[in-house]
Write a structure and sequence with these properties.
The structure holds two protein chains of two kinds.
Chain A: H1 9-20, H2 22-60, E1 64-67, H3 106-114, E2 119-134, E3 137-146, H4 148-155, H5 157-160, E4 161-164, H6 168-171, E5 175-179, H7 180-186, E6 193-198, E7 203-212, H8 217-222, E8 223-227, H9 228-234, E9 244-249, H10 255-266, E10 269-272, H11 273-276, H12 278-316, H13 318-326, H14 331-366, E11 368-372, E12 376-379, H15 386-412, H16 416-421
Parallel strand pairs in A: 3-8, 5-7
Antiparallel strand pairs in A: 1-9, 1-10, 2-3, 2-6, 2-9, 4-7, 5-8, 6-7, 11-12
Helix pairs in contact in A: 1-14, 2-12, 2-14, 2-15, 12-14, 12-15, 14-15
Chain B: E1 2-11, E2 17-27, E3 32-36, H1 43-50, E4 58-63, E5 66-67, H2 73-83, E6 84-87, H3 99-110, H4 115-128, H5 144-156, E7 162-166, H6 174-191, E8 194-198, H7 202-206, E9 210-215, E10 218-220
Parallel strand pairs in B: 3-8, 3-9, 6-7, 7-8
Antiparallel strand pairs in B: 1-2, 1-4, 4-5, 9-10
The chains are: A alpha+beta, B alpha/beta.
């Protein structure tokens, strides 16, 4: 027998049906292909960027961040003595208490955390708002008072420097490392002297010893590193004053547990990196939802394409269905023919889609873009996770099977007598 | 071979109408029976009931001792596949399939023979019907008479106990009609094939062993 499917007449019938409708079959296939391509491309692009951001975040923010959470709002002092349920009380113009942001015994806590085997590095931190001035230009920003060697251990300060030398922070009493965007706005470069003014009104002359670019735009545009001592001077505080302790762990995934433990042990707020970046993860969730929705819509549309072609075939081939039933083919045989057809369209379109999605991702990944957004990247980072390919293909098969199911069931339920007698 | 007892079929839609009114009929093994009657008399309805395609009626039909309505849908399909061959007014060959493939379809459903055996049997039937030389052609390339002969070959491939026909010569010219009638006669005489056909062609009816006349859903004496 010449026919490759002679043993399996159902396959052969399905094959002949699809070939008798070449153009429609092709269009249905392209629909699935397009859906899968978009799936692969979108998922790869989005998660690629997200993973890149997470990686950057993991490298640039503390895995666990210990700080003194200052609650500025406080209940009226009278409320302590008067039952507010039965009486109105009013205290006007109550000011926030002068609560210190200071982490007491900071140095001792650091020494203790350092001994924790899960910890890779600990660094003290003193954050403050300040104004930078360089000649006529003036910028507001945040100042990070750090122990630069410890900071480097945590956040790879040295690797992010695009100009200058980190070690001059140690050798120079008034060194400052500016974020790249900030330096740009100020017009300052290495060895220039910028003036830093704090909210306490203290101003210091600082010498630019380095310019740093982390890739996280917000940080690069506003932040500068100064020494812990200078930060304390700007706030008119003693040498033990720190506001935050940053911890880097050997295993990032332990952050949540470690944070909880430290919060209980030291009585200060301890936050893991996911909680610190909760807003960003919230945006990711919305992005993922949007893309999922787009992908589902495309696959639903391609499902309609398959439904359409199968319905056309079924009505055209009604006599075939009738005679097959008359000669003893079962309802299930008939529905199988059409399920085979939809699966053939789905799997072929799906495979083509995987290939095209892969190629599209590769090509886009090669185009230099230099995006300055949330994070700054030169090339789009695309995730080639094989799981996406698997999921996209499975999704294509499922949606085409669902689209094929109803026509197949309809064909199986045709009454051959009605068809034959109506001719 | 076929035994129908008190078969009654009513339609309630659009108006109440009795298509088959208490019909009892026996067809013996090897008998060639034709059902005749004016259109709307119920002869075709009776044929579809007798041939298991229609199972909605009152009364009982047995084929080879099996009560048709005791079978499930799947069992009915298998029953048709092994016991019954059909020839309709229209040939119902699958387009884009070769003649040979078309003839083999019922055998492939049956699935008891090897590919070679199926092919051999198909060729045998095609030879019997004088269209063996067309075997490798696409079915839609054949003339109407040839197509109907291929349809008969397909009906015969599983060696059915009964061959049913619904106006099998209705679309054929007189020459092809007589060819088909000769073949049916030959099947009856040489292979003792039980045949039950619906027709209103008198030439056809004359070649049968027995003519059953139906009028208004009842069997009436042949005039």
């Amino acid at each position: 027998m010449k026919s490759p499917f002679a043993q399996r007449p159902l396959l052969r019938i399905a094959w002949v049906h699809l070939f008798s409708k070449k153009r429609q079959t092709l269009v249905a296939m392209l629909g699935v292909m397009f859906g899968v391509t978009v799936f692969i491309f979108q998922a790869g692009l989005l998660t690629g960027l997200q993973n890149y951001f997470i990686e950057k975040t993991v490298n640039t923010t503390a895995h666990v961040h210990v700080y003194n959470e200052v609650r500025t709002g406080r209940p009226h002092v009278l409320a302590r003595y008067i039952d507010t349920n039965s009486r109105w009380i009013a205290v006007r113009n109550q000011k926030p208490r002068d609560e210190e942001r200071k982490v007491k015994n900071g140095n001792q806590i650091i020494r203790e955390i350092e001994k924790d085997p899960r910890v890779e590095g600990v660094a003290p931190f003193l954050g403050l708002q300040g104004i930078y001035r360089f000649g006529m230009s003036q910028q507001a920003g945040t100042l990070a008072g750090v122990d630069i060697l410890r900071e480097d251990q945590l956040f790879k300060v040295k690797d992010n420097l695009i100009a200058g030398d980190m070690l001059r922070m140690e050798t120079m009493p008034n060194g400052i490392i500016l974020g790249a965007g900030l330096a740009d706005k100020l017009g300052a470069s290495v060895d220039n002297t910028v003036i830093v003014i704090s909210s306490k009104g203290v101003s210091l002359d600082m010498k630019v010893v380095g310019i740093s670019k982390t890739g996280i735009t917000l940080q690069d545009n506003t932040r500068a590193y100064i020494s812990l001592r200078n930060a304390q001077r700007l706030l008119q505080q003693s040498g033990t004053y720190i506001t935050d302790i940053n911890v880097r762990l050997r295993d990032v995934d332990q952050a949540e547990a470690v944070a909880k433990e430290y919060q209980e042990r030291y009585g200060y707020k301890a936050e893991d990196w996911k909680a610190s970046n909760a807003n960003v993860f919230g945006i990711f969730r919305i992005q993922n939802l949007t893309v999922t929705f787009v992908i589902i819509s495309i696959l639903v549309v391609s499902g309609f394409g398959i439904f359409n072609i199968l319905m056309t075939i079924i009505y055209e081939k009604m006599p075939d269905i009738a005679i097959l039933k008359a000669m003893g083919y079962r309802d299930r045989d008939i529905s199988q023919v059409f399920l085979i057809e939809s699966l053939a369209i789905g799997s072929t379109g799906g495979l083509l889609g995987l290939l095209l999605g892969f190629i599209a991702s590769k090509i886009v990944g090669m185009i230099p873009l230099n995006i300055q957004g949330f994070v700054s990247v030169q090339y789009l980072v695309i995730n080639f996770n094989p799981l996406f390919y698997l999921a996209a293909f499975a999704f294509a098969l499922v949606s085409t099977t669902v689209a094929g199911y109803f026509p197949a069931r309809k064909a199986a339920r045709f009454d051959p007598v009605e068809i034959i007698r109506s001719r | 071979m076929i035994s129908a007892q008190n078969v009654t079929k009513r339609f309630t839609e659009p108006v109440e109408f009795t298509v088959l009114d208490d019909i009892s009929l026996d067809v013996a093994q090897g008998e060639f029976v034709v059902l005749v009657g004016p259109s709307g008399s119920g002869k075709t309805t009776l044929m579809y009931a007798l041939s298991t395609l229609d199972t909605i009626y009152d009364g009982a039909i047995r084929i080879d001792g099996t009560d048709i309505r005791s079978l499930s849908k799947n069992q009915l399909a298998t029953f048709r596949n092994t016991m019954i061959g059909f020839v309709f007014q229209f040939h119902y060959l699958l387009q884009d399939f070769t003649v040979l493939e078309n003839v083999m379809l019922p055998a492939q459903r049956l699935g008891i023979w090897t590919e070679e055996e199926m092919e051999e049997r198909a060729m045998q039937k095609l030879t019997l019907l004088g269209v063996a030389d067309q075997a490798s052609k696409k079915s839609n390339r054949l003339s109407g008479g040839q197509q109907q002969r291929v349809a008969i070959a397909r009906a015969l491939i599983n060696e059915p106990k009964i061959l049913f026909g619904d106006e099998p010569t209705g679309n054929l010219d007189s020459k092809n009609t007589s060819i088909v009638l000769d073949i049916l006669q030959e099947l009856k005489q040489e292979f003792k094939q039980t045949i039950l056909m619906v027709t209103h062609d008198t030439a056809f009816a004359e070649r049968a062993d027995r003519i059953v006349s139906i009028r208004d859903g009842r069997i009436v004496p042949t005039t």
